[in-house]
Amino acid sequence: MILPVTAYGHPTLRKKAEDIDQNYENLDQLIGNMFETMHYANGIGLAAPQVNLPIRLFLIDATPYENDIPEAKDFKKVFINAEIVDKRGEELNMEEGCLSIPGIHEEVTRPGEIHIKYYDENWTFHDEKYSGMIARIIQHEYDHIEGILFPDRLSTLRKTLIRGKLKDIAYGKVDPGYKMLYPKLKKKTAK
């Protein structure tokens, strides 16, 4: 089932997500729905806060890019209760976008290597290191479970330049071609 993607401005995107346990209700179904939603929206990653659930769960399917990015081959994973324990390496600047922030793509600087601990959908524990594009995708999705969005990582000038576009998203004035859950914002009235 395709779920609505939580739009910029929705409070769930700003919450630090909570750990879950193996008894989280309908987890397998949720993971399946999240993959279906992500693929429908042509994304390569999706975090639970992006489907209005403040839990520490995100998933990635980088396989559509395996012809251009060798490390993307067969990279389809679920990350539960993830914790990035180290970031290092050369700071790399690359363009990023986000399903919750449709139509906006900006250059974001991130470390080139990460060390992450997490559980997969079978509750198998992983302690892994990644670099390059995979490290970037993981960091982007990890930010979502920390209540951080990629515009937060932009310079003050860049944030100012996209402020109007972000406001349009929050007020539902964009149509990305997939279902969105917009925040319930009230227009300010002149006094």
Write up what this structure looks like.
The protein is α+β, with helices and mostly antiparallel strands and 191 residues long. Helices cover 23% and strands 32% of the residues. The strands form two sheets. A five-stranded antiparallel sheet has the order 2-3-4-5-6, sandwiched between helices. The chain has a two-stranded parallel sheet with strand order 1-7. β5 and β6 form a beta hairpin. The chain is globular, with a radius of gyration of 17 Å. It starts with a strand and ends in a 10-residue tail after the last strand. The mean pLDDT is 95.
Lay out the secondary structure.
Layout: E1 5-6, H1 27-40, E2 45-47, E3 57-61, E4 76-98, E5 101-119, E6 125-131, H2 132-145, H3 156-170, E7 180-181
Parallel strand pairs: 1-7
Antiparallel strand pairs: 2-3, 3-4, 4-5, 5-6
* Strand segment tally: 7
- Oligomeric state: single chain
Low-confidence stretches are: none
N→C terminal distance = 45 Å
CA-atom Rg in angstroms: 17 Å
Overall pLDDT, averaged? 95
- Count of spatially separate domains: 1
User: What coarse outline follows from CA principal-axis ratios?
Assistant: globular
How would a textbook summarize the main sheet? 5 strands, antiparallel
Q: State the strand order across the main sheet.
A: 2-3-4-5-6
Tell me what portion of residues adopts beta-strand conformation.
25-35%
